[in-house]
Automatic annotation (TrEMBL):
SUPFAM superfamilies: Nucleic acid-binding proteins, S-adenosyl-L-methionine-dependent methyltransferases. S-adenosyl-L-methionine binds at Q244, Y273, E297, D342. Gene3D superfamilies: Nucleic acid-binding proteins, Vaccinia Virus protein VP39. Belongs to the class I-like SAM-binding methyltransferase superfamily. RNA M5U methyltransferase family. Keywords: Methyltransferase, S-adenosyl-L-methionine, Transferase. This is TRAM domain-containing protein. It comes from Pilimelia columellifera subsp. columellifera. Coiled coil: none annotated. The active site is at C369 (nucleophile). Residues 11-72 form the TRAM domain. InterPro entries: MeTrfase_TrmA_CS, NA-bd_OB-fold, SAM-dependent_MTases_sf, TRAM_dom, U5_MeTrfase_fam.
Length: 417
């Protein structure tokens, strides 16, 4: 039965179908619809597009909202396409939220989410957001949004075969191959073999053509260390260590950070949440030996790799600590001229942002993989008298709702660029 009108007395259960007009895209890969007498119950609808009329099946019922999957499209958006992956959609692999959307439409939806987060969580008004001219750029060489993912983690099911998880579920979907994975990852036969006693299988493909298979935390095929190239340098890292997942991302993000910060010879730079030293390496030569670059990385394996990767640049120092501890313990001595921060999804948080606002820096570049976390930190920067001056966004994760932003903060009143 499909419910078209409802009054508050009708009790909904999972599996009920609702006919809905779909509204704006929201953070998290779904769109917002309302159901029932005004103002209506909020329904977060996956596999839909703004403006569509859909039949949606309820998947979760919560006190203030419902979750649902669009299972039939009554009136379709011009941005709708046939998903290139047969494993996407309701009741299938949960990895890609936007397979049913043309790439330009995916990027418009991501730009809309960034703007909405900056307004709702970041506290910016409509004029401030408009002035940023937010748009999401494709990465160079990305033609169809497929075959880009150079790190893939599969989960091993009770059958001992690896697959990908369903959305918000522990159920494992036994796929043939992942369409967004790099071709060399699609070619390796890890999905055909049983993996008894193993929880997860990760496969990493490096920009230099190496391939490593990692069962739980142990490399079982390929090199223990991978070699990557970016911004004119070579990087060695453990096969399971963090590296930008899209093959064009490291280059695009380092170029954006360097362009926004415009480092000068003699600058003191902090590269926080520095991983294997990607951003430090990209700007250290410009800063030169009259300057100083400090990388702060919490993971000892990342810090050791960063120190080795940047050993030819003696004015670069690597501190193995959390950013919070490094700021507290004065591992970051004196004032900085420039700060780069690339925190995990949770963002830097208010304490770190407040400390950075007092660092004396003339500019801060913030690389963010979650626009909501970035927006919360935008608000804290503003409270400290810093403004979000420029924002670039990159489609580092096509077919998914994820997006990478690079934001430039300067003390309020500082001249642009
Ligand atoms: C998004 S990655 C960025 C790495 C690096 N900037 C790059 O692009 O390759 C975030 C990094 O922050 C590190 N990290 C997480 N929490 C941290 C903390 N509180 N302090 C310092 N580093 C942290 C992680 O180990 C990871 O290497």
């Amino acid at each position: 039965m499909t419910l078209q009108q409802i009054d508050d007395q009708i009790e909904l259960v999972e599996g009920d179908r609702l006919e809905l007009t779909v509204g704006a895209v929201a953070h998290g890969g779904h769109c917002v619809a309302r159901f029932g007498p005004a103002p209506g119950r909020v329904v977060f609808v996956r596999h839909a597009l703004p403006g569509e009329r859909v039949i949606a099946e309820i998947t979760e019922i919560h006190r203030g909202y419902l979750r649902a999957d669009a299972i039939e499209i009554v009136v379709s958006s011009a941005d709708r396409v046939a998903p290139p992956c047969p494993w996407s959609g309701p009741d299938a692999c949960g990895g890609c939220d936007f397979q049913h959307v043309a790439l330009p439409g995916q990027r418009s939806m991501k730009a809309a989410v960034i703007k909405e987060q900056l307004t709702r969580l970041g506290g910016l008004d409509a004029d401030q957001v408009d002035a940023l001219g937010v748009r999401v750029d494709a990465l160079p060489g990305d033609i169809d949004g497929l075959g880009w993912r150079t790190r893939v983690r599969y989960t091993v099911a009770a059958s001992d075969h690896a697959g990908l998880r369903k959305h918000r579920s522990n159920e494992i979907v036994p796929i043939d191959h992942c369409r967004i994975a790099h071709p060399s990852i699609q070619a390796v036969d890890v999905l055909k073999r049983p993996w008894p006693g193993v929880d997860s299988i990760s496969v990493a493909a490096s920009s230099t053509g190496e391939l490593a298979v990692i069962a739980d935390h142990h490399v079982v095929e390929g090199p223990e260390r991978l070699t990557e190239t970016a911004s004119g340098r070579t990087w060695q890292l453990a096969a399971g260590a963090f590296w930008q997942v899209h093959p064009a991302a490291a280059e695009a993000l380092t170029a954006a950070v360097a362009a926004l910060l415009a480092p000068r010879p003699g600058d003191v730079v902090w590269d926080l949440y520095g991983g294997t030293g990607l951003f430090a390496g990209a700007i250290a030569e410009t800063v030169g030996e009259t300057g100083a670059v400090t990388v702060v990385e919490a993971d000892p394996r990342g810090a050791v790799a960063a120190a080795a990767n940047l050993a030819d640049l003696p004015w670069v120092k690597v501190v193995n600590a959390t950013v919070e501890a490094a700021l507290r313990q004065r591992a970051l001595r004196g004032a900085a001229d420039l700060v780069i921060l690339d925190p995990p999804r949770a963002g830097a948080g208010a304490r770190v942002v407040r400390a950075l606002a007092g660092s004396g820096a003339r500019a801060i570049a913030y690389v963010a993989c979650d626009p909501a976390a970035l927006a919360r930190d935008v608000r804290t920067f503003a409270e400290q008298g810093w403004e979000l001056q420029l924002l670039r966004a990159f489609d580092c994760f096509p077919m998914t709702h994820h997006v990478e932003c690079v934001a430039l903060f300067t003390p309020a009143g500082a001249p642009a660029g």
